[in-house]
Amino acid sequence: MTPPLRRPARPAVLTALASAAFLAQLAVPGAAPGAAAEDCRREVTGEDLPAGRPHPLIDRLGLRQAWDLATGEGVTVAVIDSGVDATHPDLAGAVLDGSQYTVVRTEDEYRRSTPAPDRDCLGHGTAVAGLVAARRSEGDRMAGVAPAARIYPVRVADGVEQATANTLATMIDDAVDAGAGVINLSLATPTDYPPVREAVERAVAADAVVVAATGNEGNEGVSGGRMYPAAYPGVLAVAAVGDDGQPLDTSNAGEWVDLAGYGEALAVPAPGGSGYRTESGTSFAAAQVSGAAALVRSRFPGLSAAEVTERLTASAAPVGGIRNDRTGAGIVDPFGALTHLGGDDGGGPGSGEGDGTGADGPAAGPGAIPVRAVPGPEPLLGPTEATAVAWSGGLLLAVVLGLLAAPAVRRAVRNGRLPATAPGPGTSRRPDTGGPGSHRPATPGTGPPFPRTDWLDGSDVPPPSAARSARTSPTHRNRTR
Fold this sequence. Notes:
single chain, alpha/beta, Peptidase_S8_His-AS, hydrolase
């Protein structure tokens, strides 16, 4: 029998520990679904969650913006842990029928059965599942990163600490067979066990996103500086940061660390009712990354697991502005992963992209906004418009000049600098010399008949004295009689 694995060390939690409840014995492999589990040696419960405040992770991770794009619908996340209490109100309808493994001292090393819906003695798996896929409640007091995802629980009776390497390898295979798109492994060991490594390789080859915690030893007693399965190729190794975004001292570090999540004093669902408790550590940071992976797989189902992983790391918020051994690429950013504008992510069916190429060159990855070439300068007016504007401008200029010239022409006529033409051809009402009212025949054929400027200065109107003389003349009086 291979040595047992251990879960990352966990700080004390703010919960009460209750006595074990009496349950029936585990069923043997092939037993009917619903076979009950053995008694819990110890069991945790929760307390009421303060009302009126949304869960802090909602703002820290920008989840409301992310939920506008994806909620994890259609994605199954396997939680290989201590079990999941499916009866908790925040997980109602989110948990599928899973598997349960009991370690036995036989050649097979374990027995498999179906867990009871409420079976989670230690509460660790329920907490992880809540951070992944808890349904949104009133006021968002509790919500998972992917609130529409489904949870497939793979339970080890009495906790993952009791599992052997062969048992854990079988559990990973179980999650793959169940069609899990994301597998969460909030557990760690400093030993590289071949069965576990091979099971992880099979999961990666099956296109599952495998997420694992880096552990909480602060690298003390970590042989070779690596923890498994987090350090295996193809696995997203997740460290933890505090509320201030700085790495937790207890979080293991190394060049094999890929991402970080928040891992300090997080409110999580507790089993055995509707309560909550507080947890810390890389286990719960890993749960946030698993939820983010579910969001990406939900929005872009055509992406491969490797492409999902690349999106998560490329869009992370670097701690200190650079990649480092404490937090890897940085703190996971679900909204950033959903809107990442990096290169071609290999879009395929369901990814919202075509074949990755186009008339303007390689297409951007799924979720990216296509960037077109900057258009060259174009004339403001086409040939037709330019001609029309030129003609309009010429006509407008002619009208303006005419209006401006009229007063000058009138003054020139009054001053005698311009001749005033007579109404009829060959005559003129104004001689070259003499004052107004003086008339003499004009020289035939001389003087331009146009322009008619005589009426502009009133020269065609008889002087007042002449008009009165005409009215008082005998001829006029005789005519009026």
